[in-house]
Amino acid sequence: MLYNVWGSVGSAMSVRRPVRSPLPDDERENSDPESDAHHYYIPTKYDMFDLRRSRILPEKLFKVIIIGDPTVGKTSFIQRYVQNSFTKEYKGTVGVDFALKVVHWYDSQVVKLQLWDIAGQERFTWMTRVYYKDTHGCVIMFDLTNKNSFENTLKWKKDLDGKCTLSDGSPVPCMLLANKCDLQDRKVHQADIESFHKENNFIGWTETSAKEGLMVNDSMKFLIEVMMQHEGVNSTINHKKSSLQLVNQEEKKRRNCIC
Amino acid sequence: MSDDLPSTYDVIILGTGMVESIVAAAVARTGKKVLHLDPNTYYGQLWATLSLDSFELWAKTGTSNTKTLKGEDSFKSLSDKALKYYETQDERDCISDLTFNWNIVEDIPESEEEPKEENASGNEYSIKKIRDVSRKFNIDLAPKLLFAKGPMVEILIKSQVSKYVEFLNVNNILIYIDDAIERVPCSKSDVFSSKSVNVVDKRLLMKVLTSIQSYTEESPFFQEYENKTFLDYLKANLPEKFANFILYSIAAGDQNTPCLEGVQKAKKFLSCLGYYGNSPFLWPLYGSSELLQGFCRQCAVFSGIYCLNREVEAIAVEGDKYYGCASNGILLQSEHLVVSNSLLPQQFRGTGPSVKRAVLITDKSIFPEGKEGVSLLQYPTDDSAATILELSGNTCSVPKGLFIVQIVGNCLEEAIKNLFSEGGDDSKPKILYSLRFTLHQMECTGKLPENIHACPGPDFATDFDAEIRKAEEIFKKICPEEEFFAPLPPEPEPPSDEPDSPEEATNDA
After folding, report:
1. Which residues are B378's β-sheet partners?
2. Is A114 left (phi over 0), alpha (psi -120 to 50) or beta?
3. Which residues of A touch B498 (CB under 8 A)?
4. Choosing among B11, B146, B159, B507, which should be mutated to test the A contact, i.e. which has the most A CBs within 10 A?
5. Is B82 helix (H, G, I), strand (E, B) or coil?
6. Among A181, B217, B234, B403, which residue has the least CB neighbours within 10 Å?
């Protein structure tokens, strides 16, 4: 892979090989073990007839926030990852907090990712705490052709760590993405990013191209892996808390009836 | 960061206080283009919730960030139109007589700490040790509670901003009476199960609570008290102690509260019981400013543009109409301006009523036998009253083992003296840190152009009812045709597994 420059995490990524599932031969071809996509189970049209697949898999829900300067490609990245498309004019869906992506994880888990876009709050370095709240993972993105956006990633990291931690108090796992690697006019050196990400406790970094779809799935897979490890240690994630959430009383009653 | 703000909007909102933020979300939902500015680096102005570091900085400088003043006259050459410029003011004028004090040692040397550990009972705190966990503090400048069935809860649910915020019950409703703190039996079931009330008093209390709950406009029961105080009514029907319980804790009133007003307030309190546990009040985790941040987030999700740390130096008026805002050397135009009273130009701003406030950090609860969480204590005196809110570790406002105490009321010194110790008396909570100030409400006094809408700062009520009313009033002026927080169409079904289509396999190769 031409632009695949993982930092110290490169080795970690390859440790866990995907578990092979007993797939029919024609399906196995479809998911080439070397390709990015093999890391998930990719459903096909055969699924609905295959009883082995229809068993209910355990689900995990993760909130992932994507932050960084304006125009570095955050919304395009989400759009590429969730819908596998790229539009120059894409503005995000008005009125919706996050995009949802469902990933089959090693054929044994369903991982639901809430990808929170920054909406209009990106013009300054300070986000509301409600945006960061209860997040399990973070992507900080910059534009390889814009040195300023690289320098500002530190401000974003500090804003995140200042307002939010995992429920055990440890910092939120945060991945650094160098977007727009399809463009020629680079202003940031790989060696600089490498040392920068180590100094500032990012879990890893890579170059991506939301436009070409390069390393989009791979990078997110890596983040899911790290979040799954934290989830193992941190049993409070995905557990019910003692606090109250306001709900419409009528809706609540309706729901109770169904149960 | 990038400063290429578009120059025209439907609505510019100046200040991120509670009313401004509610209006921001409400207006953005109707599709209007909103720009929301704040001179500070944090949300909320005088409604903010701050970490200890920021809170200490706020106490010293009046803001939690260091501002650089821009060239005053820079805006005067902005437009060739015949505009009159009014310079905005500083919210700092709302605070006076501010004093603060640490009541513990700066630092405890490592070597001394070891042997002390065994008999340490709250005396081992040092300023350094507390500052080290600064981020675990979320200290409110304007703490307020939500009535479980009040307008704020209704709007939070209707707007779906409720999904951003979690709440706790205010689980100890207390009163200071006869030199002791007592739990107030709020509901009929509380009265029923109370061990401190004898059978005769139980019956009387039940009767009064039932009459209050069944009160309607025509209720003949209260008519004979029409020109009397609520206390007159209560004293005629209850022993004095229970009369005080109802007057101060349930009706949040005083000796002069008229009977009908007291009955209405008590009825509201009672009608809020049972929705979210046996408490009429809710408290937002992480502090009151979570609410306004939730509204700001919603505004942003509906394409509102946010810009903190951005001052508006002057408001430009053309004839008798507001025209735009001069900010950072450019003129930002909009149809409407929503602005915090505290930032209004001096021609339009006057000082309203004021109240004394104090914030304490303590090492023990005022009511250790109560449930952990949020306690609300009314402290009545002969001529006034103080309201005391205590937050413990599970509110996410303070590290475990410590407490934040918020006191409002002009007799707060007396309350502090009787409830807390500055050292020595181990039976009372010890004050580790204290801050006192006087909060002035700013009012809009002059006649503003019709398309400028001024928003009040924090008032002295315990709930958000007035803020919701004001936000709705402003919304109706900007969007007369629209419903306030009209329900949204249901969110689209999340994409199923189908987008995981096989084409994806080739993307990254």
Report:
1. B175, B387
2. beta
3. 43
4. B507
5. coil
6. B217
